[in-house]
Amino acid sequence: MFGKLRWILLLFPFFLSLGNAWAQLHPQEAVGRIVFDSFRYNNFKPFFERSIFALNEEEFKSFLYGIRNQSIRNELIALHRQPFPDDLITASSKWEIAFKHNWRGQWRHLSRNSPDFVREQSFLPILREARGYQIQWETVKLMAIEVLLPVSWKNGRFEVKGDADFDENSSNPRTLHFDRNLSYRLRPDNLTYSKAFMIGYEPEDSEKSYDRNIVGNGSGQGDVVVRFDQSSPDEVHYFCPDQEGAGGNIIIKNYSDFDKPNQRTDLLLTFSYGEPLQAYQILIPEVLWTPKGPLFCEKPKWLGETSSTRGLKFE
After folding, report:
1. H helix intervals, 112-243
2. pTM value?
3. H or E segment to which residue 271 belongs
4. Lower CB count within 10 Å: N or C terminus of the chain?
């Protein structure tokens, strides 16, 4: 309880610092806009401040120790070289030991990345790629900031990118966690061919589809774009109308409700430029909640020109 309260208190200074123009943005959208504007104005400082490298040692230690993400914990547990005592049977007890012995190594790896190195390896490459397309940043328009969720098909069901919750909190590995007032772009791969992805009030019932603020729901072709708001229910379901047991449930919460896994999310920035207008994309990978608000943990990727603009409008 104390940990949750502390995170909420830390969140408010971050959110209020965004200014009146961004006051209604979801914090992850705000991060996307900050990163995009850092490229637009060639201003590295706000870019660096929204990266994991902006944490100091104590902030990183606190963030890593308390992270509600079993997938990340399992990755660190796997790095632990010594055998665990036989009486340690729970993931949480193994985490205590793995964290104690390995967090400093993770911090040393992180701290070796100086601001100059981050600028050279993560910031300038995006500007160079944009120059290759003759992008004039002063005339571009940001079209969308979305969470990109790849969707595949395995063992007769959909697989949607996501991290596991703590074992003791995880009721179903197929459960997805979405925030209100944040856009999600579910992108099916080739393995989902002929498998329509549908969201509905009830599982396995295409007659009760939930279509509010959803583009491409159940179409079976292209991306499905979703944005839940305050009027959305707390839970809906995703499924394949033509194959039973292919989906799961979607839990919908406000961003300030931290009773959910701290998942790594990839932010997709789509902007328009040119005459006629063309759409271009930049991916901000692995955004995680930290004591400083959402920060990205991997270097951005220039995706270039795209035709995958379902649900977006050129202006």
Report:
1. 115-118, 124-132
2. 0.89
3. strand 265-273
4. N
Q: What is the pLDDT of residue 81?
A: 84
Report DSSP state, residue 315: -
Residues facing residue 266 across a β-bridge = 148
Q: Are 281 and 140 within 8 A, CB to CB?
A: no
CA distance 36 to 145: 10
Question: How far lies 239's CA from each of 27, 132, 244, 251, 280, in Å?
Answer: 29, 42, 8, 14, 31
Over the range 292-309, which residues count as b (16 or more CB within 10 Å of their CB) and which as e? bbbbbbebbbbbeeeebb
Share of the chain above pLDDT 90, in %: 77
Peptide bond into 276 cis (omega under 30): yes
Distance of CA 77 to the CA centre of its chain: 23
Say yes or no to pLDDT of 89 above 80: no
Q: For residue 281, what are the contacts with CB-CB under 8 A and spacing of at least 6?
A: 268, 269, 270, 271, 303, 304, 306
Least confident of 50-54, 56-60, 86-90: 86-90
- The type of residue at 88 is L
Cβ atoms of 136 and 39 closer than 8 Å = no
Q: From CA 259, how far away is CA 300, in angstroms rounded?
A: 28
Q: Is 35's pLDDT higher than 90?
A: yes
Here the tokens at position 41 are 């104005």
Task: Give CA–CA dist 216/224, Å, rounded.
Answer: 5
Residue with tokens 């061919």: 193
